[in-house]
Amino acid sequence: MADKINVGVLGATGMVGQRYIKLLEDHPWFKVTYVAASPRSAGKAYKEAVANRWLIGANIPCDVKDLIVQDANDPKAALGKCRFVFSALEMGKDEIKALEAAYAAEGIPVVSNASANRWTEDVPMLIPEINYSHLDVIAEQKKHHGWDKGFVAVKPNCSLQTYMMPLYALQQAGYPVKRMIVTTLQAVSGAGYPGVPSFDMIDNIVPYIGGEEEKTEKECLKILGSVKDGKIENAKGPIVSSTCTRVPVIDGHTASVNLEFDLPEDKKPSLEEVLKVWANFKSLPQELKLPSAPEHPIVYREEENRPQPNRDRDTEKGMACVLGRLRKCNVFDIKFVALSHNTKRGAALGGILNAELLKAKGFFD
Known about the structure:
Layout: E1 5-10, H1 15-23, E2 30-37, H2 46-49, H3 62-65, E3 70-71, E4 84-87, H4 93-105, E5 110-112, H5 128-131, H6 137-145, E6 152-154, H7 164-172, E7 177-186, H8 198-201, H9 212-223, E8 226-228, E9 231-233, E10 239-246, E11 253-261, H10 271-280, H11 284-287, E12 298-300, H12 309-312, E13 321-328, E14 334-340, H13 348-360
Parallel strand pairs: 1-2, 1-4, 2-3, 4-5, 5-6, 7-10, 12-13
Antiparallel strand pairs: 7-11, 8-9, 11-14, 13-14
């Protein structure tokens, strides 16, 4: 691609914003030309705004370090400087929702990592391999608000990335899921920075993450839903029961998953059939060869003690769902362990994949 698209990052000085900036370094389609953050950072060179709190462990990209940080509360400041923005804002939900709408109203599309618009009926909450058809709702979103070029698209909660693709792959193969029990073991990086105090995490597991179980149980229904009458209508099932815990792992969310199929006993898949479905699963991002799309979105590990965050989170550059320990369940039908990289697939790199899909489908033209 000869000419890269100029992009901005809102909340650029925070942990997720920093990851966006690092992951976009040398991106074949996008170039960061605009950074914005809170008023206290505005007016400083980016390298000064993140001095002593650059968290990514590598040098600040040369093309970004001297950019002057703008006030994220002023959408007009982005006009002419970028074609769309990644939102990694860290504010109250109502404030984020209003501000993302303000950027869209100025004709600047917003590809958001924030949760504020996840339940807005005409905002797609994307996992590109699953619900790319939800992009159809953007036309109605723009019409509803009177926006010309601007719109808002979001990504789901990071913990869903561990199990949504294997679930969807089975459903697409004709094996609908009736009920699911999920127990997540979520990395400390998912809490942001500074996050959970080390004294609470070392030699410990915290069996509660505020709001996380509700997200785990409900967001999947929107992702599996369909566009109807200009809004996204949630799927009726599966019924999900979740327990979400925080564990002393830096990166990589793990989930223990139990599934019951909504099928007569003689129509339920064998373990071998389940593995075949997962091995063969590919979707639109793979067909389009999007730069951040994993070649193999689902990777199954045969070893009895895998997947493990330390060994498997960076599979397919951190964009694969890594599975293991598939076996029969004495209560439901099958059970398995799933892993995804929460700060790559579950956060900034997942947002970048969303933007790549939007670009490939002409939404930034």
